[in-house]
Amino acid sequence: MNQSRLMGLIAALVLGTSAVTAAAQTPSVKLTLDFSIQGQQSPFVLAAEDGYFAREGVNVQVDRGYGSADAITKVASGAYDMAFADLGALIQFNGRQNEARALSVFQIYDVAPMVVLSLKKAGITKPSDLAGKRIASPTGASSRVMFPLFARANGLDSSSVHWLDVTPQLREILLVQGQTDATTALITDVAGLDHLGITETDLHVMRYSDFGVALYGHCLLTTPQFADRNPDAIKKVVKGAAEAWKAAVANPDAAIAALKKREPLIEERVERARLDLIIKSAILTDWVKRDGLGAVDPARMEHTIKMVAETFKLPALAVSSIYRPDYLPLQTELRLN
Questions:
Q1: What architecture (CATH level 2) is domain 114-211?
Q2: What is the largest CA-CA distance in the chain?
Q3: Which of 88, 144, 211, 293 has the fewest CB atoms within 10 Å, i.e. is most exposed?
């Protein structure tokens, strides 16, 4: 073998070894979302497909979910490393375990975008109007899980409501057909009614946040054990997600384009409407505009935990057992402008 060929072989071996070493050092994280991937989850698809996670040096597998409660259970069991799910459901889960089984590391929704939807012709304009009514909702939906808070805050007896256990798709159909009086949902579900001939002018929307339940909403969560073992990986996932959400707020079409690559059959107009609704209702609050994504008011976090704990008769929970800001980027990196 001549010298040039030998040097080439050595160089190839060095490069190959370096590539293997780099791959071995790049952490991989399995992330489950709260539900099927729609416009409101598109920033996570953007992060995965357009390199936001990769640039931070982490491989993230982003999968659809089946409700916040299900996503939290899967993380606690070790089936997934992280999840995007409702903070209230996390608090309830930990309280029932009487220990910290899940932990929020990045508070994405500054306000939980939960609503009660009804057709205006049903005459449901205030919480007390729901007494004796039928409400359709999936059992694991965060808006249903947190409905007792809405009822308690407004003097409504939760037992007076008749629940219909349905899939999200059937929930919408039953509402339009008049087979249910109302549904619990997220504000993004308003956009999904358009294909059934229902517009916002046909609906009455009761936002939980307008009726005494202004809780923190969806967050990125993991287990304390995974966070303690993989602090750098958590920081990289949080940073990548934050950068993608900032990009989606600045240019929602980019997030929807990434979603379209993954889910070619989506109706872009509807998914853009869903993303716009979540940005307006849950992200761009005055607090976030001032302090950036993921900025948490400790007093409000404590109030959220206390309200959930008292409603579900859970033991007192320390803020540190629910939320830990250790993995956030610098505040300057979280600002939206």
A1: 3-Layer(aba) Sandwich (3.40)
A2: 89
A3: 211
